[in-house]
Amino acid sequence: MELAAAKLKFIEAWGKIGSEWGINRTMAQVHALLLISPEALTTEEIMENLSISRGNANMTLRDLIGWGLIEKQHKAGERKEYFFADKDVWNIARQVAKERKKRELEPVLKVLNELSAVTGNEKDPELITFKKSIADINKLANNVDKTLETMLKAEENWFWGSILKVFK
Amino acid sequence: MELAAAKLKFIEAWGKIGSEWGINRTMAQVHALLLISPEALTTEEIMENLSISRGNANMTLRDLIGWGLIEKQHKAGERKEYFFADKDVWNIARQVAKERKKRELEPVLKVLNELSAVTGNEKDPELITFKKSIADINKLANNVDKTLETMLKAEENWFWGSILKVFK
DNA sequence: ATAAACTTTCAATAATTTTTGAAAGTTTAA
DNA sequence: TTAAACTTTCAAAAATTATTGAAAGTTTAT
Predict the structure, then answer these.
(1) Using the beta-carbon criterion (under 8 Å), do B6 and A150 form an inter-chain contact?
(2) Shortest CA–C1' contact from B44: which nucleotide?
(3) Residues B31-43: pLDDT tens digits?
(4) Which domain holds residue B131?
(5) Does A120 lie in the same domain as A61?
(6) Using the CA of B29, which nucleotide's C1' is the nearest one?
(7) Could you give the CA distance from residue A105 to residue A82 in angstroms, rounded to a whole number?
């Protein structure tokens, strides 16, 4: 396969993955484009490359910066802003894990905690089932939380080394 | 907090989590409802409880069965179908992991493999960057795949025991 | 101070996803 | 076979989410 075709295919695939994981297609595609680009690109170049509007490009780039996945770069003597992606895939995974933990897991843990305090007739099967479910989910969520916490601090080789060794 | 209020809050929260993870809100809410219900419920009861239409309930229940998260049950002497959710949270996590692995991760691994075979001028920075990105993503995806594979086979206590011990 | 170069905003529009509900289909019992 | 009880389908409508593009805003150089 030729590079040009492969690039298109990668951008498409990354966009699809993104949308399956609740990240909007365009955002994932812009990220893909920057990920495989050796040079930082301008808004203009991104718009053209992906056939998206200026407004869309601007918002998407802003979001990607918010996720910590790309950064702005300024070139000496130029007014234009350039954007480039962190190419370290482990950093990307960690960054995504970090943001989703903060944005999603933590609020869930908070709600689960509140729900643990439900009151009522302790003989009521409805209450018994409810409490058991909440307790189980709570336990799972806490284990996930701890594992992510470790992942965030860990180096890639150490992390996978440890996990895969245990599972051999 | 009273049980009735807690149930509503849980259904809402589970729905929100679902939609953040690309599962549609209603599907997650129906799952939540069945998860905290000690008895199997009919389509009718689910419709009423969540204020959704018959068509929606039917499709959603079908999807949940497809994900292996709920099952049909028949009660002796009754024509109606009852639905109930597996209450084992570890099974749920495994089931979701299994389906997403099959539906999403495996196709991605396939595409990444094809993209590894890209050809071109080996001195071209574009090609070098592309190949490096693909190789790195490939490695990460394979590690995730192996870990999920282990998770699918594992008992909950063993799994978390192993992971959390390593990370202590 | 002005204008060119560039970035951001946001109301309107488009695209996508979800939901409805009535009609069609199926199963069971008599 | 008929009809009641129940389930499934799917075209149309509603809701949600993403995108556009022109106008407003900002920064820099002169």
Answers:
(1) no
(2) D6
(3) 999 999 999 999 9
(4) 89-166
(5) no
(6) C18
(7) 33
